[in-house]
Amino acid sequence: MAEKRFGVIGYALAPKKQNSFIRDSLLTLAKSRGIELVRVDSNVSLADQGPFDCVLHKLYGDDWKRQLQDFKTKNPNAVILDAPEAIERLHNRISMLQVVSELRVDDRTETFGIPKQIVIYDKETLSDGQASESLKFPVIAKPLVADGSAKSHKMALVFSHGALNKLKPPIVLQEFVNHGGVIFKVYVVGEHVRCVKRKSLPDVSEEKALGVSEDLLSFSQVSNLANRDSVDDEDKYYQMMNFDDTTELPPQAFIVDIASGLRRAMKLNLFNFDVIRDSRHGNRYLIIDINYFPGYAKMPGYETVLTDFFCDLMNNKQVDENVEEEGNVTKIVTGDGGEEKDESV
């Protein structure tokens, strides 16, 4: 028997995202625990829909931001997952990783950071070669904008300075670090953290780099995997990327510490980050990418993780509302991050 309903979550997602995330298995499990997931009608103003205890979204644009602001004004106790201003930080591959340098994980033998990288904004800077002199080739060329579009996923492995003129700025050049052909994808859902491993680009030896016939290769060429564009079903693509391997996962406590630090620093609840283990130093890990609201359905048991998070969210929301209502007390939060104080009405 289903529990009493105590949370309605409106979801506003692009069609492709909706199809991959909103599955019957998720809807059924959430409903059994009192959470109702309701689709937001894109043809109707958000403020005129609901009532919603929470709005789960992955839509962009000024109009959508205005709708969220209007909805929040009319529903001050509703939760927005997540704030557009916080999400936008992840749309730039430089700003997304700057937060990593601010993190501190103490008392561990493992260390972490990001690969050396630079950003090139124009063709002239790219052509003169001076900007990239500090980088060791090969490098990974990535579009500066990371907005989830097909264009933002066009990446290449570049073996020489001469090949840079084939690229179109603005781009990020990131040193390629050998990592055993394995990437760790860490999914964060509030305080829930799950780490899985996937195939990645194979290591590149100096001899191999010198022996390549082309000085710029797309990721599909380097990996010798089927081109993602040729795989119609996204699930089949990620099944192809799964593999049985003896590679040890990073220590869970270490990963949880990083995930918690990122969540607090970015003020985001739904994201994943990609981690590689530097082959030169077995206890050195590098964060190479952070994505908002990733494909959670690719994570084993995603229904349980998301439903647990939704329940935590609704429980915390109810606790906060009860505290505010007791004794007609209004909570005042100082804007400088200082202590909260209560003021009787």
From TrEMBL:
Subunit annotation: Monomer.
Record: residues binding ATP: 93, 142, 174-185, 200
Catalysed reactions, as listed in the record: 1D-myo-inositol 3,4,5,6-tetrakisphosphate + ATP = 1D-myo-inositol 1,3,4,5,6-pentakisphosphate + ADP + H(+)
Domain Inositol-tetrakisphosphate 1-kinase N-terminal positions: 8-87
Residue sites binding 1D-myo-inositol 1,3,4-trisphosphate per the record: K17, K58, H153, K185, N291, G295
One MF annotation (Gene Ontology) recorded for this entry: ATP binding
Residue numbers binding Mg(2+) 1: D274, D289
Function: Kinase that can phosphorylate various inositol polyphosphate such as Ins(3,4,5,6)P4 or Ins(1,3,4)P3.
A Pfam family: Ins134_P3_kin_N
GO cellular component: cytoplasm
Residue sites binding Mg(2+) 2 per the record: D289, N291
SUPFAM superfamilies tied to this protein: Glutathione synthetase ATP-binding domain-like
GO biological process, one term: inositol trisphosphate metabolic process
Entries under InterPro entries matching the protein: Inositol_tetrakis-P_1-kinase, InsP(3)kin_ATP-grasp, ITPK1_N
Listed cofactors: Mg(2+)
Family stated for the protein in its record: Belongs to the ITPK1 family.
PANTHER family: INOSITOL-TETRAKISPHOSPHATE 1-KINASE, INOSITOL-TETRAKISPHOSPHATE 1-KINASE 1
Name of the gene this protein is made from: LOC101510649
Domain Inositol 1,3,4-trisphosphate 5/6-kinase ATP-grasp: 108-311
Keyword Zinc attributed: no
Assigned keywords, A-Z: ATP-binding, Kinase, Magnesium, Metal-binding, Nucleotide-binding, Transferase
Cofactor remark: Binds 2 magnesium ions per subunit.
EC number in record: 2.7.1.134
Annotated protein name in UniProt: Inositol-tetrakisphosphate 1-kinase
